[in-house]
Amino acid sequence: MERVARIAVNGFGRIGRLVLRAIRERYWEELEIVAIGVTDPYITETRAILLKHDSVHGPFAAEVSAVTSPGRNALRVDGREIDVVGRNRYGPVPEWQRWRVDLVLEATGFFKDRRAASQHLVAGAGRGCLRLGALPPRWKVTTPTPDGPGTSPGPSAARASRGAASSRRRPGAAG
């Protein structure tokens, strides 16, 4: 039998919950979520409710419950228990080596660069995967308009698109 990859999700807001839902819907046999890293691990019942009933994506088609006992906080999803853990005493991320984590999926928005996210590796994760919340540098945030969203290409993107358009013209072609 092939070894199942052991996954941790750091952060359990909207993105972290969607990551768990996507893994449950698509990769439940290939991946095992063993831990969820959160700031406050003691509101497990609320996390179970938020996972089961998403106001945008609708109800989660899985059996979800909270498992709480002295010294234990976990979510049970379709019979699998996933530990809900807080930060360790030495740093801002859980001690991933306790769960033999192969990959941490970063969903807090706090670890925005390689140096910050490397704390997951120091804590014992085999690998880490960043989810950047920021727009690429060539984009700027603008006020939303009735015509579209509140983002638009910045000056560098405009120059790049003009250069790309002009390079496609045939020599001697009009305008």
Major sheet: arrangement of strands: 5-6-7-2-1-8-9
Count of alpha and pi helical runs: 4
Give the CATH class of the largest domain: Alpha Beta
What does the main sheet amount to? 7 strands, mixed
SSE succession: EHEHEEEEEEHEEEH
The count of strands amounts to 11
Q: At the third CATH level, what is the topology name of the largest domain?
A: Rossmann fold
Number of domains: 2
Describe what this molecule looks like in 3D.
The protein folds into two domains: 5-129, NAD(P)-binding Rossmann-like Domain (Rossmann fold); 135-169, no CATH class. It has four helices and eleven strands; from the N terminus they run βαβαββββββαβββα. The protein has helices at residues 14-26, 44-52, 114-122, 155-167, and strands spanning 5-10, 31-37, 53-54, 58-59, 64-69, 72-77, 80-85, 103-106, 127-129, 139-141, 151-153. The strands form three sheets. It has a seven-stranded mixed beta sheet, with helices on both faces. The model is unreliable at 138-145 and 148-170 (pLDDT under 50).
Brief account:
The chain has helices at residues 14-26, 44-52, 114-122, 155-167; strands at 5-10, 31-37, 53-54, 58-59, 64-69, 72-77, 80-85, 103-106, 127-129, 139-141, 151-153. With 175 residues, it is an alpha/beta fold. The chain has 2 domains: 5-129, NAD(P)-binding Rossmann-like Domain (Rossmann fold); 135-169, no CATH class.
